[in-house]
Amino acid sequence: MANIRLTKQFNFEMAHALLGYDGPCKNIHGHSYELFVTVIGEPIASKDSPKKGMVIDFKDLKALVKGQIINEFDHALVISHHTAQAHINELKKNYEKVIVTPYQPTTENYLIDFVNRIREKLPRGVKLHSLKIRETVTSYAEWFADDNE
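RE: above sequence
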């Protein structure tokens, strides 16, 4: 058999602020994110499997990514844990989905976080190949497994 790559695209809305940044992104602002999740593996060969011929059912990949990332981050405000506690408390008092991360909420750091959330949940024989997050129409960041071995 041959290794095949599958990619599933996800779209979500999210706001963030970059604490201590020296530009306008230090303010709370939002983006329409596009997340591309690419996995790699051999298609299932078992004659008895209802998933015969699939690396992973797109439905299963969708459920995994939605459960690990989209449901939490969609329409959330993401801020660093270094933000003043009084500010965090005020935001949480006034808004429903405030996520406090142990990292500066940049696209690069989202990639690292999302890789860890997805990789550990994939079925045996399916590996995370790459992630791509498009933050704006003209800007994106990518993570590749081969670059991180």
